[in-house]
Amino acid sequence: MKFVNHWINGSRVDGDSRTAEIFNPATGEVSGKVAMASVADVDAAVAAAVAAFPAWRDASLVKRARVLFRFRELMDAHSDELAALISAEHGKVHSDALGEVARGLEVVEFACGIPHLLKGGFSEGVSTRVDSYSIRQPIGVVAGITPFNFPAMVPMWMYPIAIACGNAFILKPSEKDPSASLLMARLWQEAGLPDGVFNVVQGDKVAVDRLLEHEDVKAVSFVGSTPIARYVYETGTSHGKRVQALGGAKNHMLVLPDADLDLVADSAVSAGFGSAGERCMAISVVLAVDPIGDELVDKIAERVSRLTIGPGDDERSEMGPLVTEVHRDKVASYLDLGLSEGAKLVVDGREVQVLGGGKATDTPGFWLGPTVLDHVPAGSRVHTEEIFGPVLSVVRVSSYEEGLELINGGEYGNGTAIFTNDGGAARRFQNEVEVGMVGINVPIPVPMAFYSFGGWKASLFGDTHVHGAEGVHFYTRGKVVTSRWLDPSHGGVNLGFPTNK
Ligand code: NAD
């Protein structure tokens, strides 16, 4: 049985004796144990990062970039191995795991441009013989706390940029699928990153709370559910830290009657059931504007009936299991809830056949097939709550305005999409919708690495999105220097407020 421990100062460390079980979601069996950090373990990681920071901060931009280039090559070469680790603990299919590695690598590639990204501004002669320039400097030790659903990509939203900017980083991955973090740590070392610049502490609330309180941790990036994101934001900022905390989501796809319904059905099924719906950018609600509802639901149901559900390491599988039994049961409970709220169950994921097994809920492992609920009442719990599983709800609306109002009235504002062939309607939507990431005929509008990722409302606490220019901003502090090299003849006391002359 594997034992996943911490990575501190360039070595694997067992730390405290507390552990938790790791499962194989496809079989339901325990596949290993993960260390759960104590306060002392976190303190050891912070101390290693504090010690490594000054030399790394002083490494030249080009030297830092070269480590990133090497890390990029190593990650690419090990992407299959990384994907297999992810699939074995998360449950997602191998091709999907490879996809998350590829999207994470794009952030590494962006961070390779750090010499350019950290160029400041310079103004000659802001006053007589006075020049001004701006520089951005690393903040020190920074932490990233990440969710189970992207054990490689979400950490890679954070650490390539934090490290490229000259910070030392501590990752606290999800305890549900921790193995990817140790492979990434080893590859950093192989790439030539000095020990202590990248550390991993495994664990739960104990580790998170210590990172939030520790005075040597200067900034915290968090991605996870909304209640924890709010808690991390409030606790971290009350301890004087810079915090960006990304939360949950309930993403709507608004379908206007002029849309190409085959494209819509393909997109809704891909975005609703990819990774078993355990994506913060998954589409979980389709808003079908009258009169297309019946035709669209038929097309969606037909496509869902052709999906293959099975273990992530079986090439035939298109959708894997859910991450834990508790989570599967919670997601499945929304089916009966939906029925009690007046929805119609068009496809019942409990009945879906699993490759090599039987009916989803009778097969060992954490299975639930793709589920489609139609006529979900607007404002019902199934419509508004984040389910985070393979449950696609269709809500019928009579107009664009009614659909927009439902999106803007929701608690979350992570992603959304409009499907239409009317450019004017799409433009109005992009302007009026209160959501951070918007797709136009694109169901999962995840921004590229050189833009920044983040939602609005309860999907993000703090004002900085992750990666792209905002990531560079988050992991650095600005400084403006005003300099004057005097003529020997110039001088004189002046108690007035400095204004330019
Ligand atoms: P989670 O909130 O349960 O856990 C996230 C992290 O917080 C983990 O590292 C976990 O160990 C830690 N944690 C859990 N409970 C804690 C507590 N009480 N105190 C301190 N730390 C705690 O989230 P999850 O189930 O791992 O991930 C799924 C959630 O993440 C969904 O809500 C999803 O929408 C969200 N998510 C959001 C984004 C985004 O970009 N907005 C991206 C991915 C996932």
TrEMBL record:
The cross-references to Pfam families, in alphabetical order and at most eight, read:
Aldedh
Q: Give the Aldehyde dehydrogenase domain ranges.
A: 13-481
Fetch the Gene3D superfamilies from UniProt.
Aldehyde Dehydrogenase, Chain A, domain 1, Aldehyde Dehydrogenase, Chain A, domain 2
Q: Which PROSITE patterns is this protein grouped with?
A: ALDEHYDE_DEHYDR_CYS
Q: Which UniProt keywords apply?
A: NAD, Oxidoreductase
Which organism does this record belong to?
A: Nonomuraea mangrovi
Enzyme class (EC, first level): oxidoreductase
Write the protein's name.
Answer: methylmalonate-semialdehyde dehydrogenase (CoA acylating)
Q: Which domain of life is it from?
A: Bacteria
Keyword field contains Oxidoreductase: yes
Q: Tell me the NCBIfam families matching this sequence.
A: MMSDH
Molecular function GO labels: oxidoreductase activity
Query: InterPro entries, per this entry?
Result: Ald_DH/histidinol_DH, Ald_DH_C, Ald_DH_CS_CYS, Ald_DH_N, Aldehyde_DH_dom, MeMal-semiAld_DH
Reported EC number(s) for this entry are 1.2.1.27
